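Consider this one:
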Amino acid sequence: MRDIFELIAEIMNSDVKFVEDTQRIRPKNSEVFRLWGDNTKIKNLTGFKPQYTIEQGLTETIDY
């Protein structure tokens, strides 16, 4: 979330700050520390190739 938040703030030239709620942070011994998305399977099965980077998509959405 922080990465996307910071990217949007940068695109919008905003000085907003990310605020964490410490009660919502995963416990230290959690089975999953960080979640990552991966589009490899859809690429392999369908030949899908993104036409936009995340930065391009967010910029167009914000400009809209």
